[in-house]
Amino acid sequence: MNELKDAKKEYEETPLPEELDGRVQAGIRQGRAAWARRRWRRGFTAVAACLAVAVGALNLSPTVAAAAADVPVLGGLFRILTVRNYEAAEDGINYQVSVPEVEAGGNLADKVNEAIQEKVDSHLEKARQDWEAYREAFFATGGTEEEWGDREMDVFVDYEVKSQTDTQVSFVVTLAEGWVSAMEEQYCYNLDLAENRNITLEDLLGSDWVNICNTAIQEQIDASVDSEGFTYFFAPEEGGFTTVDETTSFYINEDGNPVVVFPEYSIAAGAAGIVEFEIAKA
Amino acid sequence: MAQLKERQLVTFLVENQTRFYRLAYSYLKNREEALDAVQSAVCRALEKQDSLQEPDAMRAWFYRILINICTDVLRRRKLVTLIPPEALDAGSYEDPLPSDGTLAERVNALPPEIQTIIKLRFYEELSLKEISMVTGCNLSTVKTRLYSGLKKLRIELKGDLA
Fold first, then answer.
1. Label partner for B8 (CA 20 to 30 A): which of A130, A206, A210, A227?
2. pTM greater than the 0.80 cutoff
3. What's the domain count of chain B?
4. What is the pLDDT of residue A41?
5. Residue B139 lies in a domain
6. What residues of A are in contact with residue B45 (Cβ under 8 Å)?
7. Residue B82 backbone dihedrals phi, psi, to 5 degrees
8. What is the predicted pLDDT for the residue at B156?
């Protein structure tokens, strides 16, 4: 049995990488966010029930009615509705799906709705294929039913309205897939329903928008370097950030500032997830 | 309540991170993949924290997540071989049971399901009951695999292992 003590000692001498603590912290952050999202989804039905009660209350209390006048969701040129909303478990896949739709006159809303619908459908289809491929590979390489056990995959579709005025709305649709690894995609929509067109970074920041964005983003990347010189961001020559352009994704936050969004792995290590930069308007 | 549990979980994860890394590394033998595995397992644990009913079972519950991730990586590696065979030197072929090498190396050469049990019992000092929770096998299967593993390693048994 002493031999096993030696083996244990040898095992415990495995050199530890410096990044370990950082990676554990990143895992904690990501996991917390994912957990919060799950809970939020589960709470959604409860919120809907509260809203139903609030509608009843509008007729009763002048205070509630006055307070409700400040809620921008009511009235205006448009509404954002949830057109598909379900939670289901099927063949080891847990679906949490909540798909938005813009209800407004004009063809912009129709185009956006169609684009969202298409993305959601292909996301669900891809998730099913990934899962099937994983399951096949699992058994093909000698995995047993016992080991397969409680494996499950999460497929997630959700949206969040980031800001809105009487005529404009900015919202983000999130598509995610989680099992052994997790991947997440976000699509941003910034609509001016009065003018029936997409809002651009130039609308928000003026003709110098490229420079304004690049400067602000570079500052935030530089600020992310820690005391040991470590940052999740890639250097420009390694495929890191160089410049924004017309295809750069963004949403508008409640202060009216654009927030530029980069997909996972695009300019930083996967551990950083989707990265965002708020750009202050001059 | 939930917050207290989350705090307990985070403390456990941070305090034992070196153990997790070593265990992941012992399966994957690759620094980057071991780091990825630990990060994924930590992320998964926080995300699925509601499935942890008994705080006492935290250790076994987390090892299960971590080991599942590691074995999935190994399984996918089997499926996708990136290195052409001729690029490997003879020493890197896996010998199912080398008679030489240190005991730790011989442990790593055992079949995965037996390896796991030896590592959890002797390196991580989990009880047989905890190991049965981690692996999803019943207690007698765990014992059988443990004894057969020790036999393959040619280790004399003294006393009860439980």
1. A227
2. no
3. 2
4. 55
5. yes
6. 31
7. -90, -25
8. 58
